[in-house]
Amino acid sequence: MGIRSFLPGPLGFGTAPLGNMYRAIPDDEAAATVEAAWDRGTRYFDTAPFYGAGLAEIRLGEILAAHPRDEYVLSTKVGRLILDETEDPSARDLGEKGGLFEHGRPNKIVYDYSADGARRSIADSLERLNTDRLDIVWVHDVSPDFWGDEWLAAFDLARTGAFRVLQKLRDEGVIKGWGLGVNRVEPCELTLDLDEPKPDAFLLAGRYTLLDHERALQRLFPAAAKQGVDIVVGGPYSSGILAGGAHFEYQKAPADIVAKVERLKSLAEQYGITIKAAALQFSLANPVTAAAIPGASRPSRVAEDVAALGEKVPAAFWAALREEKLIAPDAPVPTG
C-alpha cells in the first residue's frame, strides 16, 4: 500500500483553478500554466471532472498529450458524472462550496458513487484527458462539506460501489492506487476503520495547513501511518489566503482567519522568508505526507511554488510559531 514509491517528487500540480474556479481563465493562460509546471519539473498532475464540469481535465489533457505518458503521474476522481445536457453553473447546490466553478462549462453535474458510475466516470475522464490510463483515482467529496448530515449515506454508497471497483482495478494493475479526495478528516478516518476495501492514500485538501492541522495531526495521520496509507496534501495555501489571496475554505476569508494570517506574515517578514514557503514546507514536513499539490492559474504562480519549496526557512521561525501558539507544539517542521 501507499503511493510514494511511484510519485516523482514532493511537489505536484493541482488543476482546480484550470476549471475556472473564482475567475474565467483564458485557454492560452491555462495552457501556459500547465507548460510552466512541466518545464519546471513537475511530473504529478491531479484533476477532477468536477473542476469546471470537465474543463480542467480537457485543458490538462491537451497539454500532457504532447509529452510521453510514462514520464508523469496522473490522478483524477470519481463520484460525479458530467452530462451532455446543460444547467446554470451558478445555481448548483454545492453545500458549503457555493459558487465554485460558476465560470466553468455549463454541463450538468450529477453525483454517482455506484460501481457503474465509477466505471463510467473513469471512461469519460480518459476521453477528456486524451490518455489511455490513470495512475491514481480518488473518490471525490464524500464528506460533510458537500453532503451535510447525509454524508454517511453517501459514504455508504461509495463504500459498496466506487471503493470496491477501484480496489479491483488496483489489484488488477489497471491503476496503481486509490483513496478518497476530500476536504474533511472524518471520511478518511472512517475508511481506515473498514476491514476492506483498503485505500492506498488520501488526497486531503485544506486540513493539514498552517491554519488547520490539529485534528489531522492527532488522529488521522497516526492511523494512516500505522496502515501504510500516504497523504497527498491539497490546498496547502488554504484556498489562497496563505499565498496572498482573499479566499479561505473557497469563500471570502473571515476576520479571525485574516488576523491569524497577518500574524503569520509578520513573523515570516521578521525572519526574511515568504509565507508561501512556510505554508508549503509545513504541509510537507509530516512524514505521512507524500506530496503537496498547490493549484495555480498563472505561470508566475508555478514559479513561486518551486521557489517556495527550495527556500531556506530558519529553525528559529518554526520555534517562533510554536512560541506564539500558531502551530501545534508536536507538529513536525522541516529540519534541513
TrEMBL record:
<feature type="domain" description="NADP-dependent oxidoreductase">
    <location>
        <begin position="10"/>
        <end position="323"/>
    </location>
</feature>
<dbReference type="Pfam" id="PF00248">
    <property type="entry name" value="Aldo_ket_red"/>
</dbReference>
<dbReference type="InterPro" id="IPR023210">
    <property type="entry name" value="NADP_OxRdtase_dom"/>
</dbReference>
<protein>
    <submittedName>
        <fullName>Aldo/keto reductase</fullName>
    </submittedName>
</protein>
<dbReference type="InterPro" id="IPR020471">
    <property type="entry name" value="AKR"/>
</dbReference>
<dbReference type="GO" id="GO:0005829">
    <property type="term" value="C:cytosol"/>
</dbReference>
<dbReference type="InterPro" id="IPR036812">
    <property type="entry name" value="NAD(P)_OxRdtase_dom_sf"/>
</dbReference>
<dbReference type="GO" id="GO:0016491">
    <property type="term" value="F:oxidoreductase activity"/>
</dbReference>
